Amino acid sequence: MKRNSLASLAIAIAALIVLVPDDLVMSIGQQFQRQTTEPLAPSTQVILPLLAPNPGQGYNPGIYAFQDFGFEDPNAYPFLKGATFHFKWLSADSNGWDYTDPSVTPPPYSIEWLIRQVAGDRNGNGGQTRPDGNKMKVMVNITLHDGEAERVDPIYAKMGDQTPDWVYNKFMVPKIRFDVGLERFQFPKYTDGIDPDGRIVGRMRYLEAIESMVSNLSVYDGDPRIEQVWVAGGVWGESAPYPWFKEPQAGDAFLQAGVTPAAWETYISQLIAVYRKHFTQTPLYFSPGWHDRAVAEHKRVIADDAVRQGLHIAAHYLSAEPDKPYFALAGWDPAGYLERWSWIRDYVQDAVGIPERRRLYVESGANDEILNPDPHIAEAYSYWEALMALDKRADYLGLYSDQSRNPNLAAVYYFFNDYAGKALVDTPGVWIAFRKESPGKWQPQKDGTYTVTVDSPSGLVTRAITIYANYGEWLTQLDPDNTTVPLWNVGGKEGMFARRTDLASGKTAFALLVDDGYMAPSPNARFNTTTAGVPARISVTFLDSGGGTFGVRYDAFNDANKLAGTVAKSDSGAWKTAAFSVPDAFFGGRSSNADLRIEALTSDVILHMVEIRAGQ
Length: 616
What we know:
By secondary structure, the chain is an alpha/beta fold. The chain is 20% helix and 25% strand. The strands form six sheets. An eight-stranded parallel beta barrel has the order 2-3-4-7-8-9-10-11, surrounded by five helices. Strands 12, 15, 17, 18, 22, 25 and 27 form a seven-stranded antiparallel beta sheet that branches.
């Protein structure tokens, strides 16, 4: 989520920990509850039964308006499928919960009131209707702390700790307080009843209070208006205990209070169990975050536990490149490459250790990109964020209003909707966007195949993964670095990244392979070309720079190197798309080991994207 990038103030911390004696009786009685005097099992062991995700009331992948308190109009932005809402516990609690009966008018700005503005009531009345006739869907999250210091803003909205007073007064939950300069922070002791080693040693009063809230929220379990519910464990609606930009003061205070990484792992596991107890129909999403004082393994423990309990993944702070986003782990290959997206890849792309892929929601945009004073830079980042999300098999993409309202980005959002949540059995096509990681990145994305050993819900798994800097689905460039050269910022949002041929050094063509599961001379292919060619549409997006021509050749049924057509550039400086309809695609890898080749004929060609759709 968006964070205020406040610099940590370099002053001493004053930590004031209010402790209350613990009872030795646990009160959250449900099937996943652990009562033990032993530490949480290591990540290589299965802690809990591997549960299937909740079935849900439908699956509506695509573009969603993020924090849609302005109620973006789907008729103005037809690519919108729904909206997300992050409700602060304090305000949600004060407005009450039980207004889902359509005959009852909910208080303004209560949860039900806001849901009705977007999705209507349970009888289908009101709300926003999309151009296709379907109602908008809603995603819901209850945030526990907004990451701010304890203060009252100009409109008297409570900032910082969003815990209602009754949690402290009735359940006697301890508080963690500390000062950073003139700022004072207050947090509940989330891990009340859990010792620093992660052992449950007493009554978990904060989790009792949380269960009371989740029980109230569960009036929406199975509500067809709700697409998903996010499990939030700490600040920003995610699962981090404190704002990362308040290190080291916050970390010191939390450790002094016994909120260690091990205790945090246990707390998050128990929190997820509470949500699983009360939500049996609506899909639950884990909103990631972790204890900043932890080692990398800690992140994997939390992620694996969430997946074991049947949660999907909600990821925030998306970037245009894999250098920035938020997760890391899986292991180092011999060349020293750490795949930061590894557990996303495991659960969403490869389903490592689980019987089915988990769904993925990503929030588009980082402050230094979307809010860049140069609108063209912000636009380019937003554009490539959408393509990166698809590359990581995202089902949902959350947009801020300055993204959804930009008409220059609408096409990529329609493209996202076309491919979001698709598999080989139902994808409209295959595609690739040509790129290379930006120069100077601290973590280059090296092309190649690596052997990586990862933890998973079923234990340690070793597998080979092939990584390319290009983004795409089911369309791969052969040996990109030895056949083409990368480019940066060559014009327009598409040109933030690109590749071109280099005739001077013998790099004359882009060679592409279509996934055999999509189209191939194989009975296992969705489009089996064994006995006859299959009609297909080949679209090539190129920079119309300079003169000269390029050709498109493909592996046809009766000709392994058939010419689909040639394109003459006119030096307009614009990005253009040339489309070729072919009647006889074979795609057996016979065109110099490729299915498709884009060849520079008289001058170099710069490409952004290639898309192939069968049956057109």
